[in-house]
Amino acid sequence: MRWKQIEDEPKTFVLIFETGDEIASVLQQFARDQGLAGSSFKAIGAFSYAKLGWFNWETKKYAPACVLDEQVELLSLIGDIALKEGEPQVHAHVVIGRSDGTAHGGHLLEARVRPTCELILTESPIHLQKKLDPESGIALIQI
Q: Could you read off the pLDDT of 50-87 as tens digits, one per residue?
């Protein structure tokens, strides 16, 4: 992954992922390396593999919903980064398109880039914190 900071206020980055990069883990490491907290991002590109999930209210966990082990278009990737217990946490939703024109969407669990993914990340001036919500069982942004 290559990146460049393109703005100071608010701090804004362009990240260019390359073939084989796993989006979520690389983005998590980038956030850690840059000391990012409250940030949002959006991206387009293509994947060779994607695992999507959905939140199961009964188990309070993200369950795999769809695995696409094929070339797909990344139609939309949006998400945020917030701190949970001092560590940046990536939360992303994705819509991907197959060659037959059908689309699949959900919570991004894992995805490998091919050939590229272009992501714009903007840090909020107010850093966001996540805290465990007892009702849902997941960490939610606190305001």
A: 999 999 999 989 999 999 999 999 999 999 998 888 88
Number of domains in the chain: 1
Q: In the 3-class helix/strand/coil scheme, how is 39-90 assigned residue by residue?
A: EEEEEEEEEEEEEEEEEECCCCEEEEEEEECCCEEEEEEEEEEEEECCEEEE
SS3 assignment, position 34:
helix
Residue 88 belongs to a domain with what CATH number?
A: 3.30.1330.80
- Assign 29 to helix, strand or coil: helix
Between CA 51 and CA 17 the distance in angstroms is 17
Quote the pTM value. 0.87
Dihedral angle over CA of 40, 79, 95, 111, nearest 10: 110
